[in-house]
Amino acid sequence: MSELRLVVLVEGHGEEVAVPELVRRLHPEVRDVRAWRHPQGSLLARDGIQRAIEAISVKFPGYAIVLLLDCEDALPCELGPDIKKRVAFRPDLQVRI
Length: 97
Description:
Elements: E1 4-10, H1 13-26, E2 30-37, H2 40-44, H3 48-59, E3 64-67, H4 76-87, E4 95-96
Parallel strand pairs: 1-2, 1-3, 3-4
């Protein structure tokens, strides 16, 4: 079985520090976890998610990508489907929301 490598796209400084440790504690089989911080405002801007995912895929080829948003100003049930459509531009990548 190959080792899972993961990049978690997060919004803030706190998540940037906490998420890698949290993932390691919950899933010890994940050996390489990186956090990529990108403010929510720029993620939700036109092509913001696509640019962030493209940058991650260049810097960390072969890594799975998880998008973690806190949705402070939006309902997840409304934001989620839109984000799912926006990340579909790269069907070769493993992206989860």
